[in-house]
TrEMBL record:
Pfam families: Aldedh. The keyword Magnesium does not apply. Gene3D superfamilies: Aldehyde Dehydrogenase, Chain A, domain 1 (3.40.605.10), Aldehyde Dehydrogenase, Chain A, domain 2 (3.40.309.10). Its EC number is 1.2.1.-. The keyword Oxidoreductase applies. This is NAD-dependent succinate-semialdehyde dehydrogenase. It comes from Mesorhizobium humile. Keywords: Oxidoreductase. It comes from the Bacteria. Belongs to the aldehyde dehydrogenase family.
């Protein structure tokens, strides 16, 4: 990973000597390093994005489609190497990394196609001989910031959508997990994306965002990460009047009504909760279970948590890998200790496993008071809270209590109850009676403090388009 920056169509190790260490979270050992961009490199990336935009926006939608479809094929061919890199640097089990890598190819394919459907419209004029058209144009060079929990999937959504719309992009990928990002960018390069249209940098995140966002070259910001960082990047973007897409944290409620198959729903809930060791913005955190089912639901859930095979994601049979960072262990310990002090029951887990690597036991807390920090802060780890409710009104009130509004889940056999939850839970996405988020063709995004804008679906392309109204006489 010597030359990890991709600027103006060339791989470089940058103009400075600063590098970031890359750690395998399953061992805690350093396995490589990544070059950090300095100001001179960011200036070069901005110049490249400016000239790259002029070239790429002139390519026809069909040419862009052909190139992106080729990139998707290359990602598919190399998906095993990409998956291995994700597991090595981020820790998730290989089966999950394979889904992520394969899914990246699907996302590129979908945006490649959708870019051909960036339709405008014609509006009948009040005046004779005048044609009024609305054209969808690429918004301009984009600065994108993607996180480490899905090193490939979060990045590809931004790159594929921006390129499909005809934008150029400077992507700052996560320093902790650079290899799959580098592999991904190579696929676009080899598929024929012209130099400058796609640039990849790593570095000190705050340095890069505070330099790129104010630059007059950049017209659009896309960020995925925590609410706190999203808030500060939004403020900076607002000051410079830049458009933003913000995909921030969540605290997903998972509502279980009294008329469901409690064991089946509990198993499904645990399966979703511990995916990627809970480091998913839509990971269910507050399991709100009808009081009549709560104890059975908790028992089944805890048994599953206790039997999960936790280990190195690269090992055969591992069901949950380590946390991606050492710092997340302290964060989880703090949240669980606080909950227990405030009266929560630690049903299982609540501790680090092994002194090597960043493993944490799948944890179940029950009867957690609202005053506990974990009921208010995103745990971003393998911790489930199970609380009972008396009425559906109570469940909805609790679901909507927090300022977050990203993912939500509801389970009910009664279609009336299911429809009510679908209507009344305040979230950008709700999945009812199954797990159904994040397909390339469906919008993915939040409301309230969880951000704004969507990354998938046709909305994901619209985010990179600006509408131009053209009124022409004699056309
Ligand atoms: P963090 O807030 O330090 O960083 C979150 C992400 O933002 C990282 O990818 C980081 O590189 C980036 N970042 C941080 N400061 C930045 C800046 N000034 N400019 C640009 N990018 C910046 O937290 P963390 O310890 O890395 O992750 C834990 C928290 O982050 C979690 O609690 C979760 O809420 C959030 N997170 C959310 C997602 C998501 O998918 N929405 C993904 C990863 C992390």
């Amino acid at each position: 990973m010597t030359k990890s920056l991709f600027i103006g169509g060339a791989w470089t190790s940058g103009s400075g000597s600063r590098r970031g260490n890359v750690i395998n979270p399953a061992t805690g050992q350093e396995i490589g390093s990544v070059a950090f961009a300095e100001t001179a490199d960011l200036d070069a990336a901005l110049r490249a994005a400016e000239t790259g935009f002029r070239v790429w926006r002139k390519a026809t939608a069909y040419e862009r489609y052909r190139i992106l479809a080729k990139a998707a094929d290359l990602v598919r061919e190399r998906s095993e190497a990409i998956a291995q890199a994700i597991t090595r640097e981020q820790g998730k089990p290989l089966a999950e990394s394979r889904l992520e890598a394969g899914g990246a190819a699907d996302i590129i394919d979908w945006f490649a196609e959708e870019g051909r459907r960036a339709y405008g419209r014609v509006i009948p004029s009040r005046l004779p001989g005048v044609r009024q058209a609305v054209l969808a144009e690429p918004v301009g060079p984009v600065a994108a910031f993607s996180p480490w929990n899905f090193p490939c999937a979060q990045l590809v959504r931004k790159i594929a959508a921006a390129l499909a719309a005809g934008c150029s992009i400077i992507a700052k990928a996560p320093e902790e997990t650079p290899s799959s990002a580098i592999e991904l960018v190579r696929c676009f390069e080899e598929a024929g994306v012209p130099g400058g249209a796609l640039n990849l940098v790593f570095g000190v995140p705050a340095e890069i965002s505070s330099y790129l966002i104010p630059s007059p070259v950049i017209r659009k910001i896309s960020f995925t990460g925590s609410v706190a960082v999203g808030r500060s990047l939004s403020a900076l973007a607002g000051q410079h009047l830049k458009r933003t897409t913000m995909e921030l944290g969540g605290h997903a409620p998972f509502i279980v009504c009294d008329d469901v198959d409690v064991d089946a729903v509990s198993r499904l809930g645990a399966g979703i909760k511990f995916r990627n060791a809970g480091q998913i913005c839509t990971s269910p955190t507050r399991f709100l279970v009808d009081g009549k089912l709560k104890s059975r639901f908790t028992e089944t859930f805890a048994a599953l948590a206790e039997n999960l095979v936790v280990g190195d994601g690269a090992a055969e049979g591992t069901q949950m890998g380590p946390l991606a960072h050492a710092r997340r262990i302290d964060a989880l310990d703090g949240l669980i200790r606080d909950a227990a002090e405030k009266g929560a029951r630690v049903v299982t887990g609540g501790r680090r496993i092994s002194n090597e690597g960043y493993f944490y036991a799948p944890t179940v807390l029950a009867d957690v008071p609202k005053s506990a920090r974990i009921m208010n802060e995103e745990p971003f780890g393998p911790v489930a809270v199970i609380n009972g409710f008396d009425t559906l009104d109570d469940a909805v009130t609790e679901a909507n209590r927090l300022p977050y509004g990203l993912g939500a889940y509801a389970f009910a056999s009664s279609t009336a109850k299911a429809a009510r939850l679908g209507d009344e839970v305040e979230s950008g996405m709700i999945s009812i009676n199954h797990f159904g988020f994040a397909a390339p063709e469906t919008p993915f995004g939040g409301i309230k403090d969880s951000g704004h804008g969507a990354e998938g679906g046709s909305e994901g392309l619209q985010a990179y388009l600006a509408m131009k109204f053209v009124s022409q006489v004699g056309a």
